[in-house]
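Batch job 17 of 40 flagged for manual review because the log was empty.
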Amino acid sequence: MNIAAAREEITALMREMEASPVHVRHVAGLALQLFDQLAALHGLRERERLLLEAAGHLHDIGHQFDFRGEGHHKESARLIREHVWKNFDPSEVEVIAQAARYHRKAMPDLAHDEFKTLNEGDRRLVQQLAALLRLADSLDRTHEQLVQRVTIELRPNQILFHLETTGPVWREARAARQKGDLAQAVFERDLVFLVGGEEIKPPGEMG
């Protein structure tokens, strides 16, 4: 497979449809940082990493097409499915679409028709990639790129996220705790977000 051609195809679609490219590029970069550092837990390889990269760049393209108010995440999935892809096969496109679809709101569920039709391996893959994307998107909650880098520390019952930041990130941490529901379920560990070795708490909880 030509990785460079696949990335160019992803980027071209993002440029065509994305109104906030800085945000989605940053989210994709954070998602790949998480992917690389959590490899011991998910066991995925380069091909799956590329699917996450695609979902990261394309997860918000549905914003301008959400005319029915069903949620831009669902519109993003639709647009990904409808694109004529040259470098991804149909099963890979569906994984990308569903990872993007589950970057917010509900977690993957067998009550959802599209998720139910996947084979068991692809269901697990969607859960893993969506878990990472939900976290990465949360870590740019304000769209200000305040979280520059994440360093992960694995403990038996916890994943510690050491954040390198350029400003206060309590909004990002709060969002990550909320949208970390899928990651907690997939990786079977509690999530802790820290800056300078201290756990981040909203202003009202600081003392």
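Reviewer: the log was empty due to a logging misconfiguration, but the result itself is present. The first helix runs from residue 3 to 17. Unflagging and moving on to job 18.
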